[in-house]
């Protein structure tokens, strides 16, 4: 049931977008855009992260704003810049669809309720996993799963390129927060709709001086600690070849762009919080190509479009209690 809800546009305020609009399985469970479109009439100021393996993450969102999938689902459903829905409205919409009413009765013993909608979606999210990429097979002993360039890239990943300092463990992420000096995406400041979204979110999260905010402050909006300005959560590298563009603001279009950025030692330190782990690497052209080959080995072929369900027809349940006075 959560899968049907995930792909159903009825869950947005105006019924035009679904969760899958920004988390499309064909696009690595992201949207393939530098910055998310967001709800119609608005535009978001961050890149839509992949939701692959989110079930295993301690915190969610680029800035760690949700501690679990249930919270993440509620935030996305109700945010004015995402789905812009209301719990009572969603209950009524789903109750008008016989199939949903039947599924909820069978699963929960009641008609559709908002909390159960959230639980169903988060249950489905826990099934969206990536755990059989070429690297996994290589580590299981299938040595021909990686090409020679990818094996050289693995050596660089663990050594000279220092990627594994932050991208480690089963998720290839330490789930910590860093400022890498990622260049600002000029679209956020030049596009009024995106800038309004940035400032409104800052207002709702209690950021001091929100009305003067011109940059995404990252983890700071949660902790309000100056030491965490510009820090963002280390993303998973699983399926990284399918989840471009890269970084919290989608500023890098390709893996080559991202590798070049790290090789330069990151970017300018706008907040005085840049991580000392980020420094020039001195990679050769051949080493960069090998590193890219390894990163590509962290991805699977992808998800087929036919695996996504079509929403149920919208049919209003007839009322048997109405009376017309004569």
Question: Main attributes?
Answer:
326 residues; mainly alpha; Cytochrome Bc1 Complex, Chain D, domain 2; 2 domains; two-stranded antiparallel ribbon; 12 helices; 1% strand
Separation of the first and last Cα atoms:
43 Å
Q: So, the CATH homologous superfamily of the largest domain?
A: Cytochrome c-like domain
Number of helices: 12
**Relative helix content:** 25-40%
Characterize the structure shown.
By secondary structure, this protein is mainly α. It has 2 domains: 2-130, Cytochrome c-like domain (Cytochrome Bc1 Complex, Chain D, domain 2, Orthogonal Bundle); 134-296, Cytochrome c-like domain (Cytochrome Bc1 Complex, Chain D, domain 2, Orthogonal Bundle). 33% of the residues lie in helices and 1% in strands. The chain is built from 12 helices and 2 strands, in the order αααααααβαααβαα. A two-stranded antiparallel ribbon has the order 1-2. Helix 2 packs across helix 5 (114-125), helix 7 crosses helix 12 (285-296) and helix 11 (255-263) crosses helix 12 (285-296). The longest helix has 13 residues, at 192-204. It starts with a helix and ends in a 30-residue tail after the last helix. Residues 316-322 have low confidence and may be disordered.
């Amino acid at each position: 049931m959560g899968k049907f809800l995930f792909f159903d546009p009825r869950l947005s305020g105006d019924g035009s977008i679904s969760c899958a609009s920004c988390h499309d399985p064909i696009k690595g469970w992201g949207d393939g855009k530098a910055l998310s479109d967001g709800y119609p009439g608005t535009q978001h100021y961050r890149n839509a992260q992949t939701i692959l393996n989110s079930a295993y993450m301690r915190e969610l969102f680029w800035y760690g704003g949700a501690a679990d999938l249930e919270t993440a689902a509620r935030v996305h459903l109700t945010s004015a810049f995402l789905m812009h829905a209301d719990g009572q409205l969603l209950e009524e919409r789903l109750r008008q669809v016989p199939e949903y009413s039947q599924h909820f009765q069978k699963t929960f013993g009641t008609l559709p309720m908002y909390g159960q909608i959230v639980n169903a979606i988060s249950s489905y999210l826990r099934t969206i996993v990536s755990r059989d990429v070429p690297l996994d097979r290589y580590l299981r002993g299938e040595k021909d799963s990686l090409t020679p360039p990818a094996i050289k890239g693995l050596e660089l990943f663990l050594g000279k390129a220092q990627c594994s300092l932050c991208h480690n463990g089963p998720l290839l992420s330490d789930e910590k927060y860093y400022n890498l000096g990622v260049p600002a995406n000029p679209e956020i400041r030049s596009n009024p709709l995106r800038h309004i979204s940035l400032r409104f979110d800052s207002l709702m999260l209690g950021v001091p001086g929100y009305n003067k905010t011109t940059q995404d402050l990252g983890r700071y909006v949660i902790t309000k600690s100056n030491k965490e300005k510009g820090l963002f959560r280390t993303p998973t590298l699983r399926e990284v070849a399918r989840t471009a563009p890269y970084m919290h603001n989608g500023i890098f279009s390709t893996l080559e762009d991202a590798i070049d950025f790290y090789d330069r030692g990151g970017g300018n330190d706008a907040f005085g919080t840049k991580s000392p782990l980020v420094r020039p690497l001195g990679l050769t052209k051949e080493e960069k190509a090998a590193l890219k080959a390894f990163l590509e080995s962290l991805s699977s072929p992808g998800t087929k479009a036919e695996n996504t369900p079509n929403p149920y027809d919208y049919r209003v349940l007839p009322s048997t209690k109405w009376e017309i006075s004569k």
